[in-house]
Structure formats: C-alpha cells, structure tokens
Specification:
With 267 residues, the protein is of the alpha/beta class. It contains ten helices and five strands. The protein is 51% helix and 11% strand. Strands 2-1-3-4-5 form a five-stranded parallel sheet, sandwiched between helices. The longest helix has 30 residues, at 2-31.
C-alpha cells in the first residue's frame, strides 16, 4: 500500500511538471498583441481607363505655327498621355481657336455643345490672354502707355475669374491645366523691357486664379520664349514653331508631375 502511495505521489509530480509549460504558453498567447494591418489603397493607375482631354482657348492650344502638324503642345501632350500608367486611351477634343480673347472664350461657353464637352472632360487644358494683350497693342500702337495694359488687366482678371466659375459650373472636379503667357516682342526688339513686367503681372493674375480654384495647375512658359536663340519661333515671330511646341509640351509634363490636382503616374 505504501508503495502504491509513493507511485501516485511521483506520478502527480510528473503531471505537474508536464502542465507547467502549457500553462505558461496559455499565458503568452493571451498576452500577445493583435497585429494591425495597414489599409491597402489601390492606385488610380492600377486599372487603366479611357480619359477625355479638352483643349480650349486660343492659337497656342490650337497649335498655330507647328510646321510638323502635330497639334502643337496639346497634340503632343495628349499623344504622350496614352503611354502613362493608368491610361488606356485618350479621347482628345480641341476647341481652341486662333485669335480668341478671354471675352470670346466666355461667349464660347454659352454654346451647349461646348458645355457638354466641358461636362464630359476628365482634364481641361487651355491658354488665354495673349490676344487680350495684342488688342491693347493694336488699339494704342502709336501712343502706347503702361496704364493701357493695366486698365485692360483689371478687366482680364474679372474675365479669368468668370471663366473658372463657368468651367466649374459645368465640371466641378476635372483638373484645369493653364499655361501662362510669354513676351513675343523680345524677339523683335530689346527696347520693350516694360513688357516683361506687363507679362509677369498678367501671369500672376492667372496663377492667383489657379491657386484660388485649388484643383488646377499653372504652367509657366515665359522663360522658354524670352529670345529666339534656340529657334523656337514660327516665321511670324509670334507663335512657337515645332521646336517651341516640343518645349511647351515638356514643360506641361514637368508641371503635371508636381501638380497635386493631377492624380496620374506620368512617365
């Protein structure tokens, strides 16, 4: 009987020794922290899609002066966009027209077909303002004064604000990409330095409206055309030639890469 009692005591010690690790393991499991996984966001470009790009404004977006007939900066840009991540195909519509001023641009937006094009656009690209300045030049050629340009600038600022309001009325979400102005007179003569400040101030009015909108990009191009050393002008010494449009398109791509309003993976 005593032998059986001893055996039972030894066996109970054995069982106690076996249970200790499991008890410790259970404690460890209960204290283990829950692993939190970061939410996975699918990039915009993961599923390629068709995009509508609308060109508006004046002769620069129309591509006047492009001897290679590649549609100016707009044609080059929309062609290259088809190689970017997330874009399956680009449907490009160019409604820009040579000679168009900002007041005529506003008038164009009264057209229902143009309104529908704005509604359908995923991206809106335009240039405007050069012909507004040329109107002042032509109207005061014999007696040009700085005050004439700043008087017109006040009107232009109101019109550029109205343009953005109208575009946002028909399309509240599409990024608007706007190029600035340049000084074509720098090619003809170096004695019109006042124009440099005029162009800078007009560009500032466009850029301020872009910033106010919050979903737009400003593309500065003035430095690309401050001389003709690189032969960037067409024979009319006003519009870019093919090389000039190449440079404009490169600048557009650079600015789009850094523009928070455009969610595209630019290559």
């Amino acid at each position: 009987m005593r032998r059986i009692a001893v055996l039972l005591f030894v066996f109970s010690l054995f069982l106690a020794g076996c249970q200790a690790p499991f008890s410790q393991k259970d404690t460890t499991l209960s204290e283990r922290e829950t692993v939190a996984f970061e939410p996975f966001v699918v990039p915009e470009y993961f599923v390629p899609k068709r995009v509508n790009v609308l060109g508006l404004g004046d002769s620069l977006t129309q591509g006047v002066g492009d001897e290679r007939k590649e549609g100016g900066y707009f044609g080059r840009l929309t062609s290259d966009m088809e190689q970017w991540k997330g874009i399956l195909e680009v449907d490009a519509v160019n409604l820009a027209k040579r000679g168009r001023r900002s007041d005529q641009f506003i008038k164009q937006l009264e057209n229902e077909d143009v309104q529908e094009a704005v509604i359908q656009a995923d991206y809106i690209v335009f240039t405007i303002g050069g012909n507004d300045i040329m109107k002042v030049v032509k109207g005061n050629f014999m007696q040009m004064k700085l005050s004439d340009f700043y008087k017109e600038l006040g009107k232009f600022e109101n019109r550029i604000e109205e343009l953005f309001d109208l575009l946002r009325l028909y399309n509240p979400t599409a990024p608007i990409i706007v190029a600035g102005l340049y000084n074509p007179f720098s090619v003809v003569t170096s004695e019109v330095q006042e124009f440099e400040q005029i162009i800078a101030d007009w560009n500032l009015s466009i850029e301020e409206q872009v910033e106010k909108d919050g979903m737009s990009c400003f593309v500065p191009v003035e430095d690309l055309f401050n001389s003709n050393e690189n032969l960037v002008y067409h024979t009319d010494f006003f519009h870019p030639n093919s090389k000039g449009y190449d440079l404009m398109e490169e600048r557009f791509v650079d600015e789009i890469k850094s523009c928070a309003a455009v969610e595209l993976e630019v290559e």
